């Protein structure tokens, strides 16, 4: 059974962490409507959506991806790089503990799930303001017994590795070559984002479908040319909070 975990939008979303964008006003009602449509889209692609309760005092809690890394064999509860986000992990750990053996990133380590891109048995992990060497080493030790390699990746100009690169098919990666070195993915087919849409590298591959922001039509054309068809969703209010389509869910096989 394929499960997606999501979380209700916090009423405090407008107070979110921001790293590369300036603060612009977020319409919370529109954000809730967009999130509802995103969950409806996921509900068509997975067997069950588990919606966690709102964390009204945790502005970024809707971005559940950052709280964990779920593999078939185990799950890692992260220690998010932004201190304001650390209380988000407890409720996610409670749910995931029903499905996986849990491991926990501990201080001084930090990891955000948005930095972890699994391609086959390799975890590419962004070395960023959110994920540090100690966290990446802890992650490596947790996943090695299950046969995963960890490759640390340096980025330029974006928050997380998955802001820059995501899988759009089993052997195809969508990426922004200005933010991540495309040579890392030489074993894969690569589609580059349209230069006018630098943030378009974040796509969500689920059940062989690609959930993709409606706001990046030029990159969508490039995907279609590569015979990759997308399910468009509008997450424009979340883009103002530096969130994208992968950030708002955690998807795994139960
Ligand atoms: C943050 O800065 O932590 C949030 N405002 C955005 C997190 C987006 N998460 C993700 O890309 N995985």
**Assigned CATH architecture:** 5-stranded Propeller
Output the helix-strand order. Answer: EHEEEHEEEHEHEEEEEHEHE
Q: What name does CATH use for the topology?
A: L-arginine/glycine Amidinotransferase, Chain A
Q: What number is the mean pLDDT?
A: 98
Name the CATH superfamily classification: L-arginine/glycine Amidinotransferase, Chain A
Number of helices, counting only DSSP H or I runs of 4 residues or more: 6
Shape: globular
Walkthrough of the structure:
The chain is 21% helix and 26% strand. Strands 2-1-15 form a 3-stranded mixed β-sheet, covered by helices on one side. The protein has 254 residues and is of the alpha/beta class. The structure holds citrulline (CIR).
Briefly characterize the structure.
With 254 residues, this protein is an alpha/beta fold. The chain is built from six helices and 15 strands.
Kindly list the characteristics that best describe this protein.
alpha/beta, 254 residues, binds citrulline, L-arginine/glycine Amidinotransferase, Chain A
Summarize the topology.
Blueprint (H helix, E strand, L loop, with lengths): L1 E6 L20 H18 L2 E5 L15 E3 L4 E3 L11 H8 L5 E3 L11 E4 L2 E6 L5 H11 L5 E6 L6 H4 E5 L2 E4 L13 E4 L11 E3 L2 E5 L3 H9 L4 E4 L2 H4 L10 E4 L1
Parallel strand pairs: 1-2, 4-5, 7-8, 10-11, 13-14
Antiparallel strand pairs: 1-15, 3-4, 6-7, 9-10, 12-13
């Amino acid at each position: 059974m394929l499960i997606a975990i999501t979380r209700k939008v916090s009423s405090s979303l407008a107070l979110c962490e921001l790293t590369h964008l300036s603060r612009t006003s977020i319409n919370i009602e529109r954000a809730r409507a967009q999130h509802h449509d995103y969950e409806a889209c996921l509900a068509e692609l997975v067997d069950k959506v588990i919606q966690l309760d709102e964390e009204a005092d945790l502005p970024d809690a809707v971005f559940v991806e950052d709280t964990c890394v779920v593999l078939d064999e185990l799950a890692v509860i992260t220690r998010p790089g932004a201190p304001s986000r650390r209380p988000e992990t407890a409720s996610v750990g409670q749910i995931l503990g029903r499905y996986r053996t849990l491991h926990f990133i501990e201080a001084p380590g930090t990891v955000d799930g948005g930095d972890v891109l699994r391609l086959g048995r390799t975890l590419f992990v962004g070395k960023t303001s959110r994920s540090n060497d100690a966290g990446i080493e802890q992650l490596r030790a947790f996943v090695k017994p299950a046969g995963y390699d960890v490759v640390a990746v340096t980025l330029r100009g974006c928050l997380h590795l998955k802001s820059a690169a995501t899988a759009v098919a089993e052997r195809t990666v969508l990426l922004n070559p200005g933010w991540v070195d495309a040579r890392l993915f030489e074993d894969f087919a690569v589609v580059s984002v349209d230069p006018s849409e630098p943030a378009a590298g974040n796509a969500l591959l689920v059940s062989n479908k690609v959930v993709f922001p409606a706001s990046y039509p030029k990159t969508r054309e490039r995907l279609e040319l590569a015979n990759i068809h997308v399910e468009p969703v509008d997450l424009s209010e979340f883009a103002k909070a530096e969130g994208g389509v992968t950030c708002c869910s955690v998807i795994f096989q139960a």
